[in-house]
Inverse folding.
């Protein structure tokens, strides 16, 4: 993950058990396949809101599914916040001018997704308004 962050422009320094990250010069938006293929957690760089203000675009290779693992909930959550998602030539492209808080139901056929929840939280931090994440639909009767 440190190598991936550095490729995107984050200065990373690991000293024994302390990791220092400086995202002030983070200007990259494309995660290279050679790094992404090594870890499923690389999907977290799809949304860089936790590092600094949204820059408008992220490009991450869509890796081969691992058993029941899918990125569908990640993408759906980001779309609900206002991102435009497309998949081109095996790459996930997320773009947005502005994110807006909303209510999001995050559970797929295999149940809730911790990773998708993390990605939505990272994006919601920079969204205008309030975001509510639910693992069960709300009965609106």
């Amino acid at each position: 993950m440190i190598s991936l962050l550095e490729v995107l422009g984050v200065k990373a320094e690991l000293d024994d058990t302390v990791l220092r990250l400086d995202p002030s010069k983070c200007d990259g938006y494309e995660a290279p396949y050679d790094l992404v293929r090594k870890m499923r957690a690389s999907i977290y760089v799809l949304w860089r809101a936790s590092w600094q203000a949204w820059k408008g675009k992220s490009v991450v290779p869509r890796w081969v599914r691992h058993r029941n693992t899918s990125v569908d909930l990640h993408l759906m959550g980001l779309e609900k916040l206002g991102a435009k998602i497309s998949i081109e030539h095996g790459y996930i492209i997320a773009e947005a001018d502005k994110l807006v808080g909303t209510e999001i139901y995050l559970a797929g056929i295999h149940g809730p997704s911790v990773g998708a929840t993390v990605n939505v939280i990272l994006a919601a931090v920079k969204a205008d308004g309030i975001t509510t994440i639910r693992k069960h639909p709300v009965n609106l009767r």
